[in-house]
Write a structure and sequence with these properties.
Blueprint (H helix, E strand, L loop, with lengths): L1 E7 L13 E6 L17 E4 L5 H5 L9 E5 L11 H10 L6 E5 L1 H14 L7 E5 H4 L10 E6 L2 E10 L5 E10 L6 H6 L6 H7 L4 E2 L5 E2 L4
Parallel strand pairs: 3-4, 4-5, 5-6
Antiparallel strand pairs: 1-2, 2-3, 7-8, 8-9, 10-11
């Protein structure tokens, strides 16, 4: 299930009640109801566009930038991307170290690099940049999807679609693929693993550390 939070819907400039464009999409795994993934700030999510002050809007939600899986930028107009450098900087200051996927026009990478070089911005995490121009050929309207593996049983497929605008512009089709894993309960009982929360964590594709200090690893 995908859950939408509109962080900004104003075009061009913000209003007193509406910020410029940004959309948060939470990626909920219905088969992981008992896992940490389903609790508040630990849900993986995707950000579509990042207008100015998007990070301020995020303060009014339970979303955590540590669990932001990807940022997708539709086009280079400022009301869709001026908030990106500030958000990336705040993510660094909040302690994020996990890589971040950024799907955007090539000019967005130039923008980030310019901000880094002129403001001494250091990012302690890698940005896996996906240049839209390299994914969508001139004679194509839809590109092969970008695949994000959120967990062993949970992934996203992000398709890039050409849109019509006065600058090159793109939309994103997000498909969530979730597997329902079946536990071998007989084998778990044989190994002396009681029917506790550990079973649910294993079924969600997570590795589990038991009270005896032994680690049980999920194997797909």
């Amino acid at each position: 299930m995908l859950q939408f939070t509109f962080l900004g819907t104003s075009a061009g400039i913000p209003t007193k009640k509406r910020n410029v464009t940004a959309l948060a999409i939470e990626c909920l795994n219905p088969y992981a109801a008992n896992s940490a993934q389903q609790s508040g700030s630990k849900k993986p999510w995707v950000l579509i566009d990042c207008g100015e002050a998007t990070q301020h809007q995020l303060l009014h939600t339970k979303l955590s930038v540590r669990h932001l899986a990807a940022i997708c930028i539709t086009h280079v107009h400022g009301d869709h991307c001026y908030g990106l450098p500030g958000l990336l900087a705040s993510m660094a200051m909040s302690g994020r170290t996990a890589p971040l996927t950024l799907i955007a026009p090539k000019a967005i990478l130039t923008l980030i690099q310019a901000v880094q070089s002129t403001t001494d911005l250091y990012l302690p995490y890698d940005i896996d940049f996906v240049a839209i121009e390299d994914k969508v050929c001139a004679d194509q309207s839809v590109a092969n999807p970008v695949v994000l593996q959120l967990s062993a049983a949970h992934k996203l497929e992000i398709e890039i679609v050409k849109l019509s605008h006065r600058v090159a512009s793109y939309g994103f089709v997000i498909t969530q693929v979730v597997q329902s894993l079946k536990l071998n309960t007989h084998k778990l009982k044989q190994q002396g693993i009681a029917a506790t929360a550990a079973w649910g964590q294993l079924q969600a594709g997570q590795d589990v550390m038991l009270e005896d200090g032994l680690c049980r690893v999920y194997l797909p």
